[in-house]
Design a protein that fits this description.
Layout lengths: L10 E3 L7 H11 L5 E8 L7 H9 L5 E9 L3 H10 L7 E5 L3 H13 L8 H15 L4 E4 L9 H12 L7 E6 L2 E2 L2 E2 L2 H18 L3 H7 L9 E4 L2 H4 L8 H12 L5 E7 L17 H19 L6 H28 L6 H24 L10 H7 L3 H17 L2
Parallel strand pairs: 1-10, 2-3, 2-5, 3-4, 6-10
Antiparallel strand pairs: 5-9, 6-9, 7-8
Helix pairs in contact: 1-6, 5-15, 7-11, 7-12, 10-11, 11-13, 12-13
């Protein structure tokens, strides 16, 4: 059972009483009359062939309050798209699969590229961005949840708790971030969050001094969670990164656009496990190595927009401070694991910290050498200004794909 402590400046909604799922879902059905609900599922085709997504779909088909499910499908040819249509057909809710690699959506993307308002690289950020555009275009959802498709411990209670704070008409939250413990197979997971993000934020505080943004970010119990929910109007003006900085970028946008009392975080699962990325010690373009660089660059960019001046000396101090704090965290987490009968490989933990420390310098060097880099995807408000009928074109492309290939 979670504690009831409110840490930081963001409201934490705990799981204190283990309310029956049926009771929560009954409330959500009532909320859906005033605030219709949508779910976004950014997916790779390969996830349809794994164990996690079939289980997720089996749970979702029994969810009574969703008005719409939007699936973003990446890395799929025509045969795989047709397979996806059949795969998701068991969902009784209104749902659409966005074939991101199909000719119709690629043609729309080319038009947006020509106007300079399209995502510049493939990846989860691009997938999520087009799904957000579709939600705005369809108008079917007022409250929207998003979660990953590789959650092997999925239960529909996760979705119910995730969307509840933005669906309840008595609450004024515009955005909600999910959090959970990363524990599976007797091990403590979540290395990037435990050993990079939290120690790095604490290092920023020590090197730069207290900043409202740093206090804001450090208030989130799991800043890298891929599960969050929001009101529909949030989608219009948000600018999200297209790289591994997606989750950090979304939180940064919430900090920029909303007051703290319109944001919250919620405990959504006792046990959470998903696909694990390799550490990739020898390849900075893959795995947790690339993830750590992208996340660190995202934090540098955000702080720079607030007037922070970074130099090579700053990054050296930051790296040294981080290294000491992170090593202390290893001992803390090891003791926590032992207390709970779990295991941590201290050698691997220290190798990860050494890599993250080096990648702080790599990210800093890249930041200084590419001052004009802007990996953010334009907001849908800007896109609509450049192409006023973009939502009509997006809806038409998705509907034509569905009609043509669903018959096949």
């Amino acid at each position: 059972m979670a504690d009831f402590y409110q840490n930081g400046i963001i409201t934490t909604l705990h799981n204190l009483s283990k309310r029956p799922l049926e009771e929560v879902e009954k409330e959500l059905v009532g909320f859906s009359e005033k605030r219709p609900m949508s779910l976004i599922l950014p997916s790779l085709f390969s996830e349809l062939e794994g164990d996690a997504l079939p289980n997720i779909v089996n749970h979702l088909k029994d969810v009574p309050y969703l008005n719409e499910i939007v699936i973003g499908l990446d890395r799929a040819d025509q045969a795989q798209y047709e397979h996806a249509l059949k795969f998701f057909k068991k969902l009784p809710q209104h749902h659409r699969v966005l074939w991101n690699d199909g000719p119709r959506l690629k043609a729309l993307d080319a038009k947006l590229q020509a106007l300079g308002v399209a995502p510049k690289e493939m990846g989860k950020g691009r997938n999520v961005w087009y799904c957000m555009g579709y939600v705005l275009a369809s108008g079917r959802g007022e409250s929207v949840a998003l979660h990953d498709c590789d959650i092997v411990t999925y239960d529909r209670e996760l979705l119910a708790r995730l969307i509840y704070p933005v669906a309840n008409p008595r609450f004024n939250y515009e955005f909600c971030k999910g959090f959970y413990a990363r524990v599976s197979d007797g091990k403590l997971n979540g290395r990037v969050s435990r050993l990079l993000v939290t120690p790095l934020l604490r290092s920023f505080k020590r090197v730069l001094g207290d900043r409202p943004y740093l206090e804001f970010m450090d208030s989130f119990r799991y800043a890298l969670a891929g599960e969050f929910s929001f009101r529909r109007d949030v989608l219009q003006d948000i600018r999200i990164p297209s790289d591994w900085g997606l989750e950090i970028g979304v939180l940064s946008e919430m900090h920029r656009n909303y007051s703290n009392n319109r944001l919250c975080q919620v405990d959504i699962a006792d046990n959470y496990d998903h696909k694990h990325q390799k550490l990739s010690l020898d390849d900075q373009a893959a795995g947790l190595s690339k993830m750590s660089i992208d996340i660190t660059k995202a934090l540098f960019r955000k702080l720079a927009t607030q007037g922070e001046c970074f130099t090579t000396e700053t990054f050296r101090s930051l790296k040294a401070t981080y290294f000491r704090i992170a090593l202390d965290f290893i001992e803390t987490y090891n003791n926590d694991a032992i207390m709970n009968g779990l295991k941590i490989d201290i050698h691997q933990e220290e190798k990860a910290v050494e890599m993250f420390a080096q990648n702080i310098m790599t990210a800093g060097k890249h930041f200084l050498e590419h001052p004009m880099e802007t990996p953010f995807i334009p907001s849908w408000s800007r896109v609509q200004s450049a192409m006023p009928d973009v939502f009509e074109q997006l809806l038409e492309a998705v509907e034509l794909d569905n009609q043509e290939f669903m018959q096949g």
